[in-house]
Every structure is written in structure tokens, then in C-alpha cells.
Amino acid sequence: MARVNTADERRFDTPKGSRRAPFRRGNPDKDRFGRFTEWVARAMGTPAFLAGLSLFVLAWLLWNTYAPEQLRFDSQIYGFTVLTLVLSLQASYAAPLILLAQNRQDDRDRVQIEQDRQRAERNLADTEYLAREVVALRLAMRDLASKDFIRSELRAVLEELDRTHDEDAANAAPRP
Q1: I need a labelling partner for 104 at 20 to 30 A (CA). Which of 88, 131, 136, 141 fits?
Q2: What is the pLDDT of residues 127-149, one digit of tens each?
Q3: Does residue 156 fall inside a structural domain?
């Protein structure tokens, strides 16, 4: 049986997959839940979260202790059972979410360590290459003439030129 195209698949003026169902399998944004877990882990580790949770528990206790009997929803007689369940539920979700965020951070750290190792290997190879080049330059510099050698050669050439010039001047001078 042939597959029937939906309206979105028949439209050529919109990019393929631009209208996607939010809960479709194979959602292209697979990292959304991971980012959510990191956000939860970051939020739970802040003083604002602790202060908010403390205010929530305090308000719960005050309401269920001092509110009129017919408006209370958690009995003090039973030890605030609903509050205990709410806090247990919060903790039971918080721990796995924090562990998921920690696993994502471990994966990022592992990738960063590998990149650092590769960078260190490249730096070592570059350093070794430059060291070999410096040694080659030093060896080449030994074969070059030194400043003192060039000065002595120039003095010898000047003395030779002076002697030749004196001889030419003596030969060219008129004889009496």
C-alpha cells in the first residue's frame, strides 16, 4: 500500500520538517532533556532555591497549623503526611536529574580532556620541530665566517691593495 503524503510533505515552499509534532519520536532536539536536567541541577544548588523551599515548607506548616480546620489539607495530627510525600517526591526526582546533569558534565569533561591531550601533542610536536630547526641553524652558523675572520681578510686585501698601489706609484714615477 502506498503511503499518503501529509499536507506538510506536499508543500514545497516550507522546509521539510519545519512543522513537527512536539512529542514525535525521533525528535531532532534530543538534547532538550539534558539541558533541562542541567537547569534543574543548577537551580537546586542555589541559595534562592533553598530559601524558596524553606518558605514553601514554612507556609505549608503555618497554614496547616493555624488556618481554620475546614481549610486545612494536611493534618498536624498525622505528622504532615502530605508534606512528607511532596518533599519525598521532590527528592526522588531531584537525585536522578542531578545525576543525569553530572553525567553530561562528565561527558563534556572527557571531550575537553581529549582535546587538551591532542593540543598538547601538537604543541610537543611543534616544539620538537622548532628545536631541531634551531640546532640546524646553529650548525649552519658554525660554517659561516665570523666577524673577526672577515675583518682579517679585509685587512689583508687592503694591505695587498696598498702594496699594489705603492708599487704602481713607484713604477709610474718619472726617473731622473
Answers
A1: 88
A2: 999 999 999 998 888 877 778 88
A3: no
